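Appendix B: complex inputs.
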Amino acid sequence: EVQLVQSGAEVKKPGESLKISCKVSGYSFTSYWIVWVRQMPGKGLEWMGIIYPGDSNTRYNPSFQGQVTISVDKSISTAYLQWSSLKASDTAMYYCARLGLGETFDYWGQGTLVTVSS
Amino acid sequence: DIVMTQTPLSSPVTLGQPASISCRSSQSLVHSDGNTYLSWLQQRPGQPPRVLIYKIYNRFSGVPDRISGSGAGTDFTLKISRVEAEDVGVYYCMQATQFPYTFGQGTKLEIK
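Resulting structure:
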């Protein structure tokens, strides 16, 4: 069974750093791209970036380039999304998903809620 | 970036009646490989999104056949032939033809 399990909710202060995770199981981690999607409170979905775990090839949405870093650890089948200096505007739910069949996001994590507040 | 525009943004529907959502892209979604990477996703309240339809009209595993997709080029439609209570949520079209991948604004389906 394909599963993407994300790390738990985080509450951080502006300026702090953060790394959230997405651990996958049930398929070959290195064979499918992983995407990160942001959903701000009460808003729609935004594609942040994508990484191929096989070779760490990464593409960012220009809107998020330089704001976040996407990475993987193949040894533990885990993808990461990290910030070096959070802002209040980073408050959102973040989802990881697999880019699979027909170039669609066929399996999703449960989401990680990040709250940034002083 | 390819802009995806959905209409309507809100759709109150009576149980058992049909529903239809349109999605228009700012440029053709036909990829150089000949495929059209247009998907439809559903997000039920409090849940992560899930895929319903990929490559315009292909139903994902477990999606009932009362849900269908159609269209070509820049104009696409999601249809639900008979709305059930479990269909309540927000529906998004999404293109994966060109980076950055983009979503429509979402259409909220609610029961009258």
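Chain A is about 0% helix and 55% strand.
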